[in-house]
Design a protein that fits this description.
The structure holds two protein chains of two kinds. Chain A has four domains: 90 residues, 2-Layer Sandwich (Phosphorylase Kinase, domain 1); 191 residues, Rossmann fold; 229 residues, Dimethylsulfoxide Reductase, domain 2, CATH 3.40.228.10; 114 residues, Barwin-like endoglucanases. Helix content of chain A is 31%, strand content 17%. Chain A is built from 26 helices and 27 strands. Chain B has one domain: Alpha-Beta Plaits (2-Layer Sandwich), CATH 3.30.70.920. Helix content of chain B is 24%, strand content 33%. In chain B, strands 2-3-1-4 form a four-stranded antiparallel β-sheet, with helices on one face. The chains are: A alpha/beta, B alpha+beta.
Chain lengths: 768, 88
């Protein structure tokens, strides 16, 4: 048996090894934490941070979580974690944890008993509905909601209250991935899984800094290359990062021009005869949609796409405008590099994975770029087989499990769309409500929901597990809107944030392992964990907060469960929505006894690759069957290049790109309470290209003022740090609540997915 | 006292020397990378003066180019560094 001290030495060593992952290619003999120590019990839980879904083992001692190690039984991470994962339990014990409810009275937040605060939330909801109608109240959740949280929210608001005013911050991070999947395949979420990494020969990372954002998967990819020197990793991005450093080839393209680059690759595939004709013949159909589709910057912007059937010949004709030479002019990518990319995708002997995340999702043509990358895989038939995968990674631990699968978006239900009568009937039957209770028409997507609050169309908003007063683009408008008279804002969270600053009621939430929960990760894997420690003070899970309020509003019949067993009962009710071979979910018992289970899971058997009869029991025939579409084919869309909503000009000559760093997760409200992570990157900064910096006389650490048409921010310069933007671009991470870069960003969004573009707007850069 | 871990970067070509020099200090465990000149150093000291002394000694190793603190873990979970605090 090991001493506690030895155990912590093992953890410290593992954390250092994890930190080293971001300087890729380094291997250590062992990074494992010792298996046992005096006085500790180890229990499984998925990591609380990104969408990778690493399996963790949490060491608990005397009711306190004190240690973390990677779960060797988890096929996701095989015992490895990143720096955030290794330190994750420290996020439970920040000094300013919210432990009691607070209510705003005469402008001051006053501590009140939790039950009194819940009474107030319920009465305010009822009063607002009575005075202004059902669509004047809303809930805004998160991809960090557990599945029971999201399910309870959807059931209360859509089934009980009868409004589609349900949204989640996942609209800001992955709704373009959803609409990409839906338009190309008719069903959401990846066809492949992380095992693709173990089979692929080529990895193309489309605007995806995996070294920092998905470090464990990045390590798996590097490990494959160490043992297989012919493996190629291509970093195709708008800025040089740690991922570029590790890649075999770093190719930079101008913002937004990935649309054109993907089309040029398709052009070359067809021109060189590198397509898979039999696959195209049998499994693909061709389509076009509307063009010049706008950017949604005005209130009540509406857009509906229309699909028109075309042909391979028509598609080929459209691509004539996308020769490598023409696209070099648009993108800055040399024609030879475009041909190189096409040759990798087009080599029938090479298995190809494309990875992406926010670069393609937070894009004013987010749906289009997903379609265009799918086109590459569909022209070559490199899809739905081991090692051949277009793979959309997710940023949050349950963006897939909760927001996409439970359907906590205005247009979605736990199965299907609100506009589909059969889907509404299914929901009404399972929820035990009249079908007329569930409204047909979607109301507000996230940006429009906050606009509606500003306009006064929405008067009540309940925000759970998210921090929109840091994350909303064009932040000032939405913050000012929330502070207007006649708005009532409830915030459930674990720490005070800029969002709790504008709340009328703050409800303290039980965090992660302080309650039982279920997440769903990027590869269709559902992961359950038990409550491992007690929440502090009166903190309560978001699920139970919703149930308490529902009961006070007279919707108790919808939530007949006990506090002890409600997670199991919610799961058993919810999985009825997905019954059938295409989406069967695991049983509760299977979830409890495994680090995670992938759906579809008919008859207890996981499906690793969808849409191919060899692996997917829902697929008919002997090979591919894209059963999500009525024609059982995957759809190739011609989607042109269109410029960004706002581009640099004489007055605002730089691109502003925003994103994250490995140490901090999202708005930093958790990771900045972890001492070592906070100390590693204590504040925001602006990356400036060294040539631009030299020209403007800016040195490392100098204060630099950024100004856009919406706001200004002064912050320290970083030159040749971990990232290097090209000349004419600056990059700012968004984790620092005291340096709010979203004061400058633009609320333009993809008209199909309604996801904002945080990667492109125009700014002026000056030495402060 | 906290157990700390560092990434240690030797002057190129001196990984072996640095490994031996660091391993010679009491309370230091060294884990060299298999394929590059990078080491993980884990320190375990009994009290604050001992920790300060060790930090001073580490700074004197001439072949040690850079030492980056990664982790400070305390078995009693006393937080050793300040964090963000936000009042309501």
């Amino acid at each position: 048996m090991l001493s506690r001290r030895e155990l912590f030495k093992g953890m410290a060593m593992a954390a250092a090894a994890a930190a080293q992952q971001v300087f890729p290619g380094v291997l250590f003999a062992t990074t494992a934490v010792p298996p046992s120590a005096n006085g500790l019990s180890w229990k499984k839980a998925p990591c609380r941070f990104c969408g990778t879904g690493c399996g963790l083992l949490i060491g608990v001692d005397n009711g306190r979580a004190v240690a973390v190690k990677g779960d060797p039984a988890s096929s996701v991470n095989r015992g490895l974690c990143c720096v955030k994962g290794y330190h994750s339990v420290m996020a439970l014990y920040g000094k300013d944890r919210l432990t009691h409810a607070l209510v705003r009275r005469n402008g001051q937040m006053v501590k009140v008993p939790m039950q009194e605060a819940l009474d107030l939330v319920a009465s305010k909801l009822k009063e607002t509905i009575q005075q202004s109608g059902k669509d004047s109240v809303s809930i805004y959740g998160s991809g960090q909601w557990t599945i029971p949280d999201g399910y309870a929210a959807s059931k209360l608001f859509k089934g009980g209250i009868g409004t589609n005013n349900v949204e989640a911050n996942a609209r800001l991070c992955m709704s373009s991935a959803v609409t990409g999947f839906m338009t190309s395949f008719g069903l959401d979420e990846p066809m492949g899984c992380y095992d693709d990494i173990d089979h692929a020969d080529v990895f193309v990372l489309w605007g995806n800094n995996m070294a920092e954002m998905h470090p464990v998967l990045f390590s798996r990819m590097l490990e494959r290359r160490v043992t297989n020197p012919n493996i190629k990793i291509i970093d195709l991005a708008t800025r040089w990062t740690r991922t570029s450093m590790a890649a075999d080839r770093s190719i930079l393209f101008r913002p937004q021009s990935d649309l054109a680059v993907a089309n040029a690759i398709c052009h070359e595939l067809i021109r060189n005869g590198w397509t898979n004709s039999a696959f195209i013949q049998n499994h693909v159909s061709f389509h076009e949609g509307k063009i010049n589709i706008g950017y949604g910057t005005q209130d009540k912007f509406a857009f509906t796409d229309e699909a028109k059937s075309t042909s391979l010949a028509e598609f080929k004709k459209r691509l004539e405008e996308y020769t490598p030479e023409k696209v070099e002019q648009i993108s800055g990518v040399p024609a030879k590099d475009i041909r190189y990319l096409a040759s990798l995708y087009g080599d029938p002997a090479k298995k190809c994975v494309s990875f992406w995340c926010m670069g393609m999702n937070q894009h004013s043509r987010g749906t289009w770029i997903q379609n265009n990358v799918y086109n590459i895989h569909l022209l070559t038939g490199k899809i739905s087989t081991p090692g051949n995968s277009p793979f959309s990674l997710t940023g949050q631990p349950s963006a897939c499990g909760t927001v996409r699968e439970v359907g906590t978006l205005t247009n979605r239900l736990p199965h299907g769309e609100t506009t589909n009568e059969k889907d509404r009937q299914m929901a009404a039957e399972i929820w035990g409500v009249p079908v007329a209770n569930i409204p047909v028409k979607p109301t507000y997507h996230t940006v429009e929901m906050f606009r509606a609050l500003d306009r006064g169309d929405i008067k009540f908003m309940w925000i759970q597990v998210t921090n929109p007063m840091v994350t909303m683009p064009k932040l000032k408008r939405y913050r000012d809107g929330m502070k207007k008279d006649g708005r009532f804002v409830v915030v459930s969270d674990v720490y005070p944030t800029p969002t709790t600053d504008i709340a009328d009621v703050i409800l303290p939430s039980a965090f992660w392992i302080e309650r039982e929960g279920i997440f769903g990760n990027s590869e269709r894997r559902t992961q359950q964990w038990d409550q491992l420690v007690d929440p502090p003070g009166e903190a309560m899970s978001d699920t139970w907060q919703l149930i308490e309020v529902a009961r006070r509003m007279g919707h108790g019949k919808l939530f007949p469960w006990s506090r002890e067993t409600h997670v199991k009962e919610i799961w058993n009710e919810y999985r009825r929505f997905h019954h059938g071979p295409a989406h069967e979910m695991a049983t509760y018992e299977a979830l409890r006894s495994n680090p995670g289970v992938q759906w579809p899971c008919p008859n207890g058997k996981e499906t690793k690759w969808r849409y191919h009869a060899k692996w997917d029991p829902a697929a008919k025939g002997k090979s591919w069957d894209f059963y999500g579409k009525p024609d059982r084919k995957a759809w190739i869309w011609f989607r042109p290049y269109e410029p960004a909503a706002e581009s640099p000009d004489k007055e605002y000559p730089f691109w502003l790109n925003t994103g994250r760093v490995v140490e901090h997760w999202h708005t930093g409200s958790l990771t900045r309470r972890i001492p070592i992570l906070h100390q590693a990157v204590p504040n925001g900064y602006v990356e400036v290209n060294p040539n631009d910096a030299k020209r403007m006389g800016i040195r490392n650490g100098d204060r630099v003022k950024l100004t856009s048409r919406r706001g200004a921010l002064t912050l320290p310069a970083m030159i040749d740090g971990r990232g290097r933007p090209p000349e004419g671009m600056v990059f700012v991470p968004f984790f620092d609540e005291s340096l709010l870069i979203n004061e400058l960003t633009l609320d333009a969004f993809c008209p199909i997915s309604k996801q904002p573009d945080y990667k492109k707007c125009a700014v002026k850069v000056e030495r402060a | 006292m906290p157990i700390k871990s560092y990434l240690a970067y030797p002057v190129p070509g001196h990984a072996e020397t640095v490994t031996q020099a660091l391993a010679a200090f009491e309370g230091c465990d060294v884990f060299p990378a298999l394929n590059q000149d990078v080491l993980i150093l884990v320190t375990d000291t009994p009290d604050e003066p001992a920790e300060s002394w060790l930090e001073e000694q580490l700074a004197l190793v001439p072949e040690l180019q850079c030492l980056a603190l990664v982790s400070g873990l305390n078995p009693e979970l006393v937080q050793i560094n300040p964090t963000l605090e936000h009042s309501c």
